[in-house]
Amino acid sequence: MLKDIPRLKKLLAYHVAPGKLLAADVMKLSSVKTLQGQNVAITSDRGIKVNDVRVIKINIACDNGVIHVIDTVLTLPTAKSTAS
Asked: Cβ contacts of residue 50 below 8 Å, gap of 6+?
């Protein structure tokens, strides 16, 4: 992956949503479009999850937005799963 710079850029962009979304805002959504261009699913029945990955720390303020820490790396959807 590290040698495939275009794929690495896509993966990183898949972890970023435009705007400043606080946890309270995210909990009202069912999905968010990423900078990579695809949506990630949001659920908030028992804590916040992004594509079934748990958010373990919320609302870390930064100069250019807000960070929400997840417990694992999101994987890019395969071409097959993006068509459905």
From this structure: 32, 40, 41, 42, 68, 70, 74
- 29-80 pLDDT, tens digit per residue, is 999 999 999 999 999 988 999 999 999 999 999 998 999 999 999 999 876 5
Say if 70 falls within a structural domain. Answer: yes
Q: What is the CATH number of the domain that holds 45?
A: 2.30.180.10
CB 47 within 8 A of CB 26: no
DSSP 45-81: SSS-EETTEEEEEEEEEETTEEEEEESSPPPPPPHHH
